[in-house]
C-alpha cells in the first residue's frame, strides 16, 4: 500500500477514469476528497470507497462555473483537510464542425478543461511547495498531440493541459513536488455521450480502452514521479505517428477517423 498522510483530491471522481483512479487510491490507503456536481454519483462514491476503509469527503461543485474551483479550495481549507495529491480529472468535449457548434457550450468546456484545472493546480501547488512535497496528476489525452477536426476545442484544451503540465513541472523540479500528465486514447466512458459523439467512426468502429487499465497506468506513473504516460501500446503508436506527420496530414487523418459513420470516407 502506498499510503500518504494527507488526502487525495479528485475532480470528476464519480465516473469513468476518475472513478477508477479513486478506487485505486482508496485500495492503496489514500483518504479521498471527491469533487463532482452529480449528487447521486457522489453518494455512490462515498458508499463504495468508505467500505474500502478510507475516509471519504464529498464536495458538490459545478466546475463549469468560474468561482467553483476557488470555492472547492476554500472549503477544503475551512475543513482543515491537508491535500498531498491533486488529480485534475474532470473534462468534457463537444462533437461537430466548429462553425456549427454551440459557442457557449465550448466556453463552458474551456472553463472546465483549462480554467478549473489551472486554478486548482495553482492553489494546491503553492501549499505543496511550502511543505516540500506533493503530487499532481493532470488528465491530458493523446488528443493533445494532434489537431482534432470535429473536436477542435477539446483537442485545443488538451494541448494546453499537456504544455502547461510540462512547463510547471519544470518550474518546480527539485522541490519535492511532481506533476504528471496522463494521456488516454479512446476510452470506454460516458465522455462520448456527453460530447454527442456516438455516431463518430472512432467510437463505433474503433476499439475502446478499459478505464481500469488507463487509471492504473496513471496511478503508477504518478507514484513514480514520471512527467507523462501514454496509456496503451496502440495509443503510443498513434502519438509517435502524429509526431512524424505534418500537422495538416495528421489533422486529415483525425478528421477521417472522427467523421460520422453515415458520412462517406
Automatic annotation (TrEMBL):
Oxidoreductase as UniProt keyword: yes
Keywords from the UniProt entry: Oxidoreductase
Stored Pfam families: adh_short
Top-rank lineage group of the source organism: Bacteria
Entries under InterPro entries matching the protein: NAD(P)-bd_dom_sf, SDR_fam
Family annotation (Gene3D superfamilies): NAD(P)-binding Rossmann-like Domain (3.40.50.720)
Oxidoreductase keyword on record: yes
Protein family: Belongs to the short-chain dehydrogenases/reductases (SDR) family.
Record protein name field: SDR family oxidoreductase
Protein's organism: Niastella soli
